[in-house]
Design goal:
about 30% helix, Rossmann fold, alpha/beta, five-stranded parallel β-sheet, single chain, 5 helices, binds 1,3,4-trihydroxy-5-OXO-cyclohexanecarboxylic acid
Length: about 170
């Protein structure tokens, strides 16, 4: 029997119970570590997931990660998060800039959504300056490389602890 492709998903791990944060990774992020290291760094996606998971555990949250190169699979994962996950952190990769189906799926998710990017898309090519995800996210963490994974989880923890905390 052939093994499942390693890039598309990560089986949920058993861990301390706590509100679930779903971390979603879009296309080409499975290549992190090899892909344009001058832009995205040398750490792998697994390294970033480990950073996010450690931060989540420090806040008493559990974390599940899913990566896909396919828009519909990301939509399905967001649908599955409804009534299951307390919050979503999403790095949609290039889907950020045009995938309205992901915008709509996130709009149908009740909990906080944090948009995350390793690079700062606003400092790059003009076509990256539009995000169709930002309008349905509480906020965006961008340009801090791998540190962004911890920052995004910290933001989610703040939002879950006090939903209005970041208003002032
Ligand atoms: C990215 C930025 C996107 O513009 C790009 O298409 C990616 C990665 C980032 O993390 O910096 O694939 O989301």
């Amino acid at each position: 029997m052939s093994e499942a492709p390693p890039t598309t998903s990560e089986a949920p791990t058993s861990e301390a119970p706590g509100p679930l944060v779903l971390l979603l990774s879009g296309p080409n992020l499975n290549l992190l570590g090899e892909r344009q290291p001058a832009v995205y760094g040398t750490a792998t996606l697994a390294d970033h997931v480990a950073t996010a998971r450690a931060a989540a555990h420090a806040h008493g949250l559990s974390l599940e990660h899913f990566q896909t190169n396919h828009e519909g699979e990301l939509v399905d994962a967001i649908h599955r998060a409804r009534d299951r996950a307390a919050a979503i952190v999403v790095n949609p990769g290039a889907f950020t800039h045009y995938a309205w189906s992901i915008h709509d799926a996130l709009a149908a998710f009740d909990g906080p959504v944090v948009e995350l990017h390793l690079s700062n898309p606003n400092g790059r090519e003009a076509w990256r300056h539009t995000s169709v995800v930002s309008p349905v996210a509480e906020g965006t963490i961008a340009g801090f490389g791998g540190h962004g994974y911890r920052l995004a989880i910290d933001a989610v923890a703040e939002l879950l602890a006090a939903p209005d905390a970041l208003d002032s």
